[in-house]
Amino acid sequence: MKRRTFIAGLGSAAAWPVVAQAQQAKQMRRLSVLMSFAENDPEGQARLGALSRGLRDLGWTEGLNLRIEPRWIAGGGIDRIRAAVAEVVASNPDVVHGNATPIIQELQRQTRVIPIVFASIIDPVETGVVASLARPGGNATGFMNMEPALSEKWFELLKEVAPGVSRVLVLVNSGSDANLIESRAIEAAAASFGVQVSSATVRDASEIESAIEAVGRTPNTGLIITPGIPIYDRRKLIFALASRYRLPGVYMARFFAVDGGLLSYGPDESDMYRRSATYVDRILKGEKPGDLPVQAPVKYELVINLNAAKAIGLIVPPTLLARADEVIE
User: Fold this and answer.
1) What secondary structure, in 3-state letters, does the chain show?
2) Distance CA 293, CA 75 (A)
3) pTM summary value
4) Domain segments of the chain: what residues?
5) Under CATH, to which class is 6-145+269-299 assigned?
6) Class of the domain covering 149-267+301-328
7) pLDDT by residue (tens digit) across 179-211?
């Protein structure tokens, strides 16, 4: 072999790792994930884990062909959401995944180009996130967690565990028109159960405390707690107040009952995050979010916390315990 040819061959061989690195960098896709939880919140980690596992099952390996970039939003209200969304949009990921209606609405205010997949939001049509469930249009689609029948189910469960309840306080997340929609659905369902409903819109711990204390000493009062960022952050306070005033409460998601609430009934949130990975996958492979229909929950779970029941002096009927997916003792 001539010296010049040999040296040229060495140069080509030396370039192989560079070429391989360049190809790998080109293949790496980026998914930004906005979470309405603190980073150390087990529920937020569980949902992120479900999303990651769903993507892994579809062939996306973190660090090889996908980079997942979570941002944790807890506390701070709309200003914190707006700042986090601005950072995400400026970074220009391939797809953004988010939960909570205020996060998705802010994303759409700041970008109509970057594809958005949502999980666990309420009525995306009425809140203006999508044009329709079948044909979302625009740059967002995903999985909703609220159906009108849920409100009736919450009253049914509340009356079953505490038959004497005749008044219900509904805590509503401030700054979210989605929760106001949910509150109206709850009020509409109350009439058929002979229950008087009052709603309190809350932004922080002091407003949560004031709202519950205002009804705490009224006999035969129960609670229905809607989801939302300040409510997620202050759920331990809600449980403590419910215990102090002996108020039976119904919550929408499993983690509320696990952390100390009386009982929860609602969609399996981790299942929705796992399913939402299919839409991230399809968008990364070239499909448009506006062509992918919004999906409803397919899996619901009833969780009962017997410690919480004991703390407020309730005995949970055996028939209700028999129907529970999980009983915490």
Assistant:
1) CCHHHHHHHHHHHHHHHHHHHHHHHHHCEEEEEEECCCCCCHHHHHHHHHHHHHHHHCCCCECCCEEEEEEECCCCHHHHHHHHHHHHHHHCCCEEEECCHHHHHHHHHHCCCCCEEEEEECCCCCCCCCCCCCCCCCCEEEEECCCCHHHHHHHHHHHHHCCCCCEEEEEEECCCHHHHHHHHHHHHHHHHHCCEEEEEEECCHHHHHHHHHHHHCCCCEEEEECCCHHHHHCHHHHHHHHHHCCCCEEECCHHHHHHCCCEEEEECHHHHHHHHHHHHHHHHCCCCHHHCCCECCCCEEEEEEHHHHHHCCCCCCHHHHHHCCEEEC
2) 31
3) 0.86
4) 6-145+269-299, 149-267+301-328
5) alpha beta
6) alpha beta
7) 677 778 888 889 889 899 998 888 889 999 999
Q: What is the pLDDT of residues 47-88, one digit of tens each?
A: 999 999 999 999 999 999 999 999 999 876 788 999 999 999
